[in-house]
Amino acid sequence: MTTSDTLLRLSNVSVRYGAVTALDDVSIDVARGETVTILGANGAGKTTIMRAITGHAPLAHGEIHLDGQRLDGMEAHRIARAGVGIVPEGRKVYGRLTVRENLLMGSRLARSKQTEPERLAEVLDRFPALHSRLDESGSLLSGGQQQMVALGRALMTAPKVLLMDEPSLGLAPMLIDEVFRVIADLRELGVTILLVEQNAVMALDIADRAYVLQAGRVVASGSAEELRHASSVADAYLGAL
Ligand code: ATP
């Protein structure tokens, strides 16, 4: 898609780790308000896409733009300030900090006109279970609650686009349902989301469009509805086994 409403665009992006080509000529568009998912097996390059966008993996080739602003080549903290929020793989909740401190960490990057207390109140409205735990250590939380903190921390930055790296990884099935419900709610609110997932069935359930990545290349793309029935999705997984 090349409409003017494209918010995030990766154009012909390649990333190498030494001799390993992790991404090979990858082009991905995310429109404003859209939820796009990137599917692929272990090692397909999903995390590298996130690292490329957030400025943690230099591009060997290609360009990345957010809302018309070129991101590649910028330092990671500037990219965050430009409006890229991330919920990292493994959640990365800081156990030595309280839940409140974890949430407020995102706040200094905020581009929002709202005050910090206003944004915190909004995040707590979304995740009421965190309210009573604000002054507890992050390490005492369950995996599901940690995922909420990681999501809340990203939302505190009022990002233009929210990147999520395998939010279901390592969670019990019940909690996975809960996390996907939250993502679906955010989508309803108009948050622009780029979601990287191994759980293709659930990701396709909440996404508008999807890209299938195999060995660093996009091998299929289309509406979530189309890809739900596409053999390329199954092939991308089976091919990696
Ligand atoms: P996973 O689901 O396991 O996180 P992924 O789809 O996110 O997989 P990446 O982590 O992006 O895949 O890795 C893509 C490729 O790059 C893999 O072949 C991986 O072995 C390789 N790779 C990743 N990080 C490095 C690194 N720091 N040095 C060398 N090779 C790397």
Quickly count the helices.
Answer: 9
The helix content is 25-40%
* Secondary-structure class: alpha/beta
CATH architecture field of the largest domain? 3-Layer(aba) Sandwich
Distance between the termini: 31 Å
Q: What is the radius of gyration computed over CA atoms, rounded to a whole number of angstroms? A: 17 Å
What would your notes on this structure say?
- The protein is an alpha/beta fold.
- It has 2 domains: 1-83 and 160-241, P-loop containing nucleotide triphosphate hydrolases (Rossmann fold, 3-Layer(aba) Sandwich); 90-159, no CATH class.
- The chain is 34% helix and 27% strand.
- The protein has helices spanning 46-54, 76-81, 99-105, 116-126, 143-155, 173-188, 200-206, 224-228, 231-238, and strands spanning 6-17, 20-31, 35-39, 61-66, 69-70, 84-87, 161-165, 192-197, 209-214, 217-223.
- The strands form 2 sheets. It has a 6-stranded mixed sheet with strand order 6-7-8-3-9-10, sandwiched between helices. Strands 2-1-4-5 form a 4-stranded antiparallel sheet, with helices on one face.
- Strand 7, helix 6 (173-188) and strand 8 form a beta-alpha-beta unit.
- The mean pLDDT is 89.
